[in-house]
Amino acid sequence: MDLQVRQRYMQAMGIPVWMPKEVRAFVAEDTPHPNLPPQGGKEQEVVLTTIPSFSPSSLPSPLAGEGLGMGGYSWQELRAAVQSCTRCEISKARTHTVFGTGNQQAAWMVIGEAPGAEEDRQGEPFVGKAGQLLNNMLLAIGMPRETVYIANILKCRPPNNRDPKPDEAAHCRGYLERQIALVNPALILVVGRIAAQNLLQTDAPLARLRGKEHRAPLNGIPVVVTYHPAYLLRQPADKRKAWQDLLFAREVFARHAPAP
User: Fold this and answer.
1) Which residue of 12, 62, 121, 249 pairs with 224 in a disulfide if CB–CB is 3.0 to 4.6 A?
2) How many angstroms separate the CA atoms of 94 and 88, rounded?
3) Tell me: the pLDDT tens digits for 167-177?
4) Secondary-structure breakdown of the chain: helix, strand, coil percentages, each rounded to the nearest 5
5) 108-112 vs 149-152, strand pairing mode
6) The dihedral of CA 221, 229, 204, 213: what is its sign?
7) Closest CA to 149 of 187, 96, 175
């Protein structure tokens, strides 16, 4: 992506193009080390390194969702199962199920919490203001929305956008596990505390989950946790921390992407 275009999306996200030293990462390849200050003590513009291309098919592909009988489901069969699902009460109030969207062979998979009102109307995840911010976040690191796969922990909108109940997340878990197995990404980016706790099966707070490389249960795919875009719209001061998370996700991805 052209650097000027990337800068515009960084600005749209609310991230200054010129970063202070304590949050600068992924500097130019000719810099000795990303944690060292630049010569002359000047702040340096963020330049993302090029990540080698790879084939997702070269990674292991476990059959997830077997506990709900979906271990061998194709994309078409899985979508049909979600659309007809009545496993929990929230299915009675939905307008549409929100299955997922994007590149089904993506290197990155983004997982959120649950559909909101606009997602329920359109049947697609992250299409409101939070979705626009997520698009800018991904574009800022050179991962346009169409290159990733996006899904949620829940496939139906909880009433009044409340947090998912444990049994609701459990009923949907097999669907998500099968999606992960079918995409077989090299990295999962989880946005928000609820999504992270459900995927990683932990009660740790977001502050303890950020900045660490986790592993998804069942398949061991690397997982990085950051803030939900809806939270960042309410707390724009934390966009700087989210930018750090995105750069860390790029580092984790670079470590695990097979050599071309």
Assistant:
1) 249
2) 11
3) 999 999 999 99
4) 45, 10, 45
5) parallel
6) positive
7) 187
